[in-house]
Fold each of these.
Amino acid sequence: MPHILIVEDDPNLGFLLQDSLESAGYAVTLCTDGEAGLRAINQNEFDLCVLDVMLPKLDGFSLAQEIRWQNIEVPFMFLTAKALKADRLQGFELGCDDYLTKPFGLEELVYRVKAILRRTSKSTETTSSTATTTDTHVFGASSLDFKNLLLHVGGKTHVLTDREAELLRLFVQHPDQLLRREEILQRLWQDDGYFVGRSLDVFISRLRKYLQPDSSVKITTIHGRGYKFEIAEA
């Protein structure tokens, strides 16, 4: 039974969310502030975190940042009244899997949760089944330890997020090939909408920064089409 963490300070909404997800067959832990949510994440394993943004003690964006800084491998989605474009972009830049603005229907929430869990469970199964052959990728003067989310470049080691590692592995598996933007979005997010597209831009920028010391590799933008991961010949 998948275990879901809900961090929501409105007691009435929190009860409705918990009841709806439990009725759909999930185990649910409910916390009412960001600090309690962080303690729960550090003490338990969850399959998904559903985070309000405007929380007491520690807001949802800060909680998500802490999750990523601690390299905790758990997908998360935001539920919030913050519907401005800048807020949505910030959510996706933090690596969220979905961003649902209030008010929303409980049935829609359940379907979105099911979609995230289905997508992430497939990703986990694929990674597990290919672990013996695809954990480590060497390219140029760099290497990616996909299993441990570590990128080694120019004598430095960067700890990647799940999405950064997935994106880099996709590039490494298709060197010098055009990867269309919509293809990348569908493969990694199963969504090619505007806000997810902006999230991709952020991840591309981060990978370029990490790889900058290695002059033998680069991510080239093919305007209006997509990207090429180019590796110079020795």
Amino acid sequence: MSQIARLSAEDRDDLVAYLDGELEGEANDRISKALASSPVARNEVEMLTRTWDLLDLLPAANPDRNFTERTLAAARSLDESVPLSERPAVHVARGAVLVAVWVVGLAAAGAVGYLAAAEWAPGPNDALVRDEPVLRDLPRLRDAQSEAFLKELSRSGVLVDLPPDLNPDAPASPTE
């Protein structure tokens, strides 16, 4: 039993051109041989012919005068598509990225400034922190009752910014 030849997808694409007499060369010969040897191919041609006959029974459309102009204008607008770099969405995205970069930059600058100020700028409690060992021992130092001992501490740099009544090197106050 011989195998029934079917039309390939490429032959089906060329079938309308074959029926209209517009197909030439090797494609024309290939479809002619397939139609001659295959009842399935002939059936496809018959179905296509009936379809065209039924389409001829439909009333013809009468487009208005502007139809051609509108269709051609729409086709031209597709050809003249806006480049990606000039689309409004791209401009909005660029602006959003620019704003985000500025916000991040300002936040980073603020953080660096705050950390720098906290590290290098003198604060009101820096002297207390520096003199913390002396302040911890202040009750014992008051009870020391030795001026020589306090002078030695002052010279060594341990006692800095003492009140005048505890600092023996301080000038005498005008009330004395």
Amino acid sequence: MSEPTVRRRRLGGELRRMRETKGLKVSDVARTTPLNDPKISRIENATVGVKPADLDALLDLYGVDDAEKRAALHRLAREGSKRGWWYTYRDAISPAYADLISLEADAKSMRSYQSTLIPGLLQTAAYARATIDAINMTSAGEHVDALVQVRVARQAVLTRPDPLEVWAIIHEAAIRPQVSNNPQVMRDQLQHLLDLSDMHHVSIQVLPLSAPPHPGMAGSFAVVGFPETADLDVVLVESLASSLYVEDPTEVARYGSAFERLRAAALPFDQSADLISNVKKDVTK
């Protein structure tokens, strides 16, 4: 059985949350809709899709009157089995990484905090290659090549007709390391950040080394927002060995609050650009 797409999991998780909020058991839903117990469970667990009429029956039962939310959930159901361009690279990327790319493709905004790396959407190909090679440690050259290609292809969301709105807070510690024996790699990366910050939909702030204690000390994260409703927003928390998706609205809101605190602690946009420029000048020639 193939991995369920993130769209189908988001839909199933949202339907489960709405059922539980209403205090209903699966058997209760089965008694009042055309669906039986196993089918409801499979939909919520994202192992099968849901037909439009069945979805409407569930939404009626759960009291979902908001037209935008209903439309958003129907879109998730309709595109639940859709595979994107990244499916070509399925042998090179993990299911969690494929999920991230899928989320970016559907999203309206991404608010991210990075403590040690430039965010993937803002990386040059050379910087991506240097960091991917270091993080993967034992990967063969062709695997690294594929991952670099994927990272660069992801950045198309920044130049599509309705571009992804990106607000990146980058710790000063992430803009100072030499990631390659060639200093030009880091100089080009820093200039790339400056160029991207001129885009109206890209906001970049630097959190200085002198900042007081802050929520970002717990690690990097990204809040992925969708155009229909904040109830469907997702948080990605990454580590060396795994990726965790946070989908519970209360926890997502907590990360949103953390981002706001980081935004307040970071340097304003103009001072952030000045710091990036100064660090670029100091890169070993």
Amino acid sequence: MGENRKENRQIKFRVNDLEFQRLEQMAKDFGMSVPVFVKKKAQGARMKPPKIDREGAFEMARQLRGIGVNVNQLSKRANEGKAIPKEELQAVERELHALWQQFNSAIQK
């Protein structure tokens, strides 16, 4: 085992349960396994966790898709020559503004 690996040396060390839980959470925040995270940190890598977690990004994408569907429906009606009530346009604008605020606050963390 390991003959074809570039890294042929293994380092083992022990941590207590609390230390492992902390390492596990930090690694999760970076989307990495504990060994990969610890190796990068040991090599002095400066890492910043993503400002938006995976679930948050999926939720924002879902909201954006919903807004896109609304805009497409309004565009279709407008192209058919139908009037678009100002309230509907304002509602879409409010949704976009709220999503932008959510995104902006997430990237400022």
